[in-house]
Design brief:
115 residues; mainly alpha; 2 domains; 5 helices; 73% helix; 0% strand; MAX dimerization protein 3; LST-2
């Protein structure tokens, strides 16, 4: 029902002004986001044992760390987009190691904080 409601509101908005987002649309999207996040947590919990919301949060922080590490490595020229796009085998082993070093040195207040 929530998806259908959001779909209808977005369709109505698309027929009006694409540059203006009404409060009704913003509220509907926020409500949908909350419902979808709850669904994701339930789904992930059913597929993979998630002990607590805190553990799930830490897992998300590690994922963000990996993403930020890859972005930083691209920006500094350590990696190329072609290496990522081609799933370079050596790169698949390098990214987790690079993320660990980056998490300890560059993002020391992040999820790998030793304190």
């Amino acid at each position: 029902r929530s998806i259908e409601e959001v779909r209808n509101i977005i369709r109505d908005q698309a027929l009006r002004d694409l540059n203006l987002y009404t409060e009704k649309m913003k509220d509907s999207l926020k409500h949908f986001d909350v419902l979808f996040a709850e669904f994701e947590l339930s789904y992930v919990s059913a597929m993979v044992p998630v002990k607590s919301p805190k553990e799930y949060y830490v897992q998300q922080e590690v994922i963000v760390l990996f993403c930020e590490t890859v972005e930083r490595a691209l920006r500094l020229g350590y990696l190329t987009q072609d290496m990522i796009d081609d799933y370079e085998p050596a790169l698949m082993f390098t990214i987790p190691r690079l993320a660990i070093v980056c998490g300890l040195v560059v993002y020391s207040e992040g999820p790998l904080n030793l304190d």
